[in-house]
Amino acid sequence: MKITEHIQAAKEKTLFSFEILPPLKGQNIRSVFDGIDPLMEFKPPFIDVTYHREEYVYIEQENGLLEKRIVRKRPGTVGICAAIQSKYKVDAVPHILCGGFSKEDTENFLIDLDFLGIKNVMALRGDAVKSETYFKPEPNGNFFANDLVKQISGMNKGDFQEEILDNSHHTDFCVGVAGYPEKHMEAPSLEQDIKRLKEKVAAGAEYVVTQMFFDNKKFFQFEEKCRENGITVPIIPGLKPIATKKQLSLIPHRFHVDLPEELITEVARCRDNNEVREVGIEWCISQSKELVEAGVPVLHYYSMGKSTNIKKIASAIF
Which of 116, 236, 262, 317 could join 298 via S-S bond, C-beta 3.0 to 4.6 A? Predict the structure, then answer.
């Protein structure tokens, strides 16, 4: 089923979903299942699987020249999605990026997903590689998530990269996109960021999943601004419980979100990370309860492959 169909079938009941990372190269699918198994009792209708683009390093050779070597740390998104759908009988949502893909690569990736019966995708621009300051698309690649959504929507209409394809197959993907309650780090303002989001919806996006946030007021204000700007698709809040003291500085730096002063104070008082985890769990439970009361369609948790804290949160909510 499509994500939008799951939401409609729930008849305004809040659903539970979560996101996982592909395992590090060299690990097997068991590590993925170990993170999913404890959460299946909460009946997630779908599970997101992130995609990590290839990165590269330059190795100096004996002759002084530099050799470009590709490093791929987390392969397997398509295979993991197929395994999830086969084992758990729930829908898997692969993330697909602009970065690292030409339009032809994207088309082939989507064809593989279509063959496997995967009907949902999350369309993202992706970040710049570590060796670059700014995002650069591949030659003949999509620059913005909006462009990627347009390509996917085109395939849903039978439009492929080849100019002429007789009796071309129409895919039927449900496309999700990201929203940023505290704006994307590269956007000049929240208002401009919401305009870009509206363009993604106009291009064919059918639902929005937000970046993590720790203050529900930020989400409610974002949702209100989206509705004022004519964005009517479901908006799904994304949540992540804090688990370590280091995250007090890491999360604002990496994800460009603010942490409430009350949460910072509670974490700072903790003697060790075991206490931090409990604070993070209780904070996320409080967030979740308020969001359920507000009638959000889905609570989407960024589990990062670790299910113990997400299970405690879900047990208090679902």
Answer: 236
